[in-house]
Specification:
Two copies of one chain form a homodimer. By secondary structure, chain A is of the alpha/beta class. In chain A, a hairpin with a 2-residue loop joins strand 7 (137-142) and strand 8. Chain A has helices spanning 10-13, 20-31, 46-59, 77-85, 93-104, 154-172, 189-195, 197-201, 228-246, 259-269, 284-290, 308-315, 319-325, 330-343, 391-414; strands at residues 2-8, 35-42, 62-66, 89-91, 120-122, 126-128, 137-142, 145-150, 176-185, 207-213, 216-225, 250-252, 274-278, 299-305, 348-354, 369-376, 379-386. The radius of gyration of chain A is 27 Å and the shape is elongated. In chain A, the strands form four sheets. The first copy, chain A, has a six-stranded mixed sheet with strand order 2-1-3-8-7-6, with helices on both faces. In chain A, strands 14-13-15-16-17 form a five-stranded mixed sheet, sandwiched between helices. In chain A, 41% of the residues lie in helices and 26% in strands. Chains A and B meet through helix 2, strand 2, helix 11, strand 14 and helix 12 of A and helix 2, strand 2, helix 11, strand 14 and helix 12 of B.
């Protein structure tokens, strides 16, 4: 089954916003095993929109349109799609009632007149109730083809897709597609591919695909089967084999688990608290830990010691070390991590010091040089990195490697 | 003049990556005053690619293609575009030499055979030397139409565009387009529009457009004229009028200046140092300040006090205050900001405490409640916010508002 995605909106044509909706829908359609050959963006213009819809319906089985379902005169998606597919428009009493209810619960006292336009639907369309807005989603079916119309705001699009569109598409698919995710940190994409070369080469079902993220590699394993149980049965041994080959480099096999969530989970498991001592990352490692709801159980305080003076004052880094080796050195990283634990009652500390640039680099210590240290169970572990890219990119990589060193140190010391 | 953008690549069709290249190019083309009606994404497939290129050349004056210029057999963009436009392919000695030089400076000892493919070009094409990769950009001109072929990696695409494609497109345009940016924080988009309603209503040249960003509104003023001077002369009074209407809500009129850069610039101007005392934002305010190269001049240390104990230990927040008013309260925010200054030698402190959720909210103190305080010149200023959205969104908004309160406090106290 072939799917095609059309985004409607001038703000996309003019580059005011990035088209994240299409990325979301494309990924979801791929997960469902749908084939995809084209994506389009078009503005709120009757003739051009009609032409794009006609072309897409000519070559795809399911056309998913986002945007242009709002209450203003500019919003044309529903009207044009109904016209192209030959559906008359009628008022839907159920949707009208929902709009009334929506406004009862909102700050508006009076329902703006143009909102009633959103109760007009193509006659015979499947109506997808939208709990987060006034424009319902719509599915128009004709001659074995379907057009799925969804509102553009992600807060409306995502729930509508997961709750109503995905089940609809799954029912149209002859087979079940299920996938598993293996998330890796500490290996590059080509290293991961080398380790899995024979698996990747002989892949058929399940398939294996690797994706490079900042400091991470994600491996998606996808199986096609007659039933959900069968698909899961196909996935299991492949995921197990990947895990056994990559060992501790695998930080999660949960689809949605982030690196910081994996770290917080480990800290919780071993009942450990951690503190942070950051120089060039300036609070971003702590910021990632606090991303995790409930992080307060394991993370209570952190230090941003950007100046040498602050490193001495809060972390007791010695004057001699700073003078002899400099702020960006293995020795300073070591003392920062140690000092963080002794300045608090925490079980562990992760420390980062480096040169993020663009200035401050030298031949001996170039921009991108970063030392990361962990202190745990009276032991310090330090790693040295030479990152590439601009200031933001260098700091982003340092944050990932700091979280990962913390993770691996916990495994090595407590498992 | 009409431009159309085509992205070539399976990773876009499958939703593995977000199409930021198209957003970049669309914004740049809009800034040049080019009209845009369609964007497409298509895979590395001969027939489909040829069809898309043919359609685009039929309706646009300039078609910009990105991706598919790599050295592998999958990469077809150049070959298919040359075929559609009727250009024979020939080897270009200059490009071959550049590829040799590129590999001399790289870690590779031997040049992979398939890289020579990148020295083959459509005969008569304009060749755009690529300093960051082996695939040159190409411009094919025929019958008053042009196809511009650019490599997909942003690190190659952006410099090629700015250095060679933009000047080329500017020359083709009969008039000059210049724009100015006014960046606003502390007002919502509709408030900004209300304040500028008469200007927006009667706009012709320059035009005024507003864009909502997290916690910010950006206003782009764009003028069309016969010369650069004339365009700048048209922009000046409009920018001045907007600035005078929005006053201190305007934090910058520089295209690339971020909120944190504006804050660091102000701190430098008044020779002030600042510290941070963060609870729910957990280091992200400090992280934003450290985004700015040279931030060490004004920011040397910061506190992440996630637990009550840490708030007491480092910031001297009183036990009585925490007990009577709670950690998320105006009083605690006030004491955090005060304590931050007294614990350091800094001139100012910005403090954040709030409930980012999803847990921890109550009827009295719902999720999203955030207090932000600044201490400066013996004066404390506290603002209360009720943010919407998930944990990440609430924290992101809190960071922006903290930077903005710091900015406005500096203006009020030192200007």
């Amino acid at each position: 089954m072939v799917a095609e995605l059309i985004s409607v909106g001038t703000e996309l044509l003019l580059g005011n916003i990035v088209n994240t909706n299409t990325q979301f829908l494309a990924e979801q359609c791929a997960l469902l095993g749908l084939s995809q050959y084209h994506q389009e963006v078009v503005g709120d213009n009757h003739d051009r929109l009609a032409e794009v819809i006609r072309t897409a319906l000519g070559r795809a089985d399911v056309v998913i349109l986002t945007g242009g379902l709002g209450p203003t005169e500019d919003d044309l998606t529903k009207e044009v799609c109904a016209e192209v597919m030959g559906f008359p428009l009628v008022e839907d009493a159920h949707t009208r009632k929902r709009i009334e209810q929506y406004f009862q619960n909102s700050i508006y006292k009076v329902i703006p007149d143009n909102n009633w336009k959103q109760a007009i639907v193509p006659e015979g369309a499947i109506i997808l109730d939208n709990d987060n807005g006034t424009a319902p989603g719509l599915i128009l079916e004709k001659d074995g083809k379907a057009a799925v119309l969804l509102p553009g705001p992600p807060g409306e699009l995502y729930p509508l897709f997961f709750q109503q569109v995905r089940p609809y598409l799954e029912k149209k698919q002859p087979s079940v597609i299920r996938s598993a995710m293996v998330k890796v940190c500490g290996m590059g994409e080509s290293q991961v591919e080398d380790s899995l070369l024979d698996l990747i080469d002989r892949q058929e079902n399940p398939t294996i695909a690797t994706y490079a993220k900042t400091g991470e590699v994600h491996i998606r394993v996808t199986a096609k089967a007659a039933s959900e149980e069968e698909a899961k049965r196909l996935l299991k041994p492949v995921v197990k084999e990947i895990k056994s080959r990559l060992g501790d480099f695998v930080y999660s096999v949960k689809e949605k688990e982030t690196l910081e969530e994996a770290v917080v989970r480990l800290l919780q498991k071993y009942e450990l608290t951690v503190t942070t001592a950051e120089s060039c990352t300036g609070g971003l490692v702590a910021g990632r830990l606090v991303n995790v709801p409930g992080a307060s159980e394991v993370f209570r305080e952190g230090f941003i010691t950007y100046s040498n003076k602050a490193k001495r004052k809060y972390l007791d880094v010695s004057k001699a070390t700073l003078k002899k080796y400099g702020a960006v050195s293995e020795q300073t990283a070591r003392e920062m991590a140690t000092g963080g634990v002794f300045a608090t009652d925490c079980d562990a500390c992760v420390a980062v010091t480096g040169i993020a640039g663009p200035d401050g680099g030298s031949e001996e210590k170039p921009v991108g040089l970063v030392y990361i240290a962990t202190y745990m169970k009276d032991k310090v572990r330090v790693e040295q990195f030479q990152f590439k890219g601009n200031r933001a990119k260098i700091r982003e990589q340092a944050v990932v490697k700091a979280l990962d060193l913390l993770r691996r140190s916990i495994l090595d010391n407590y498992r």
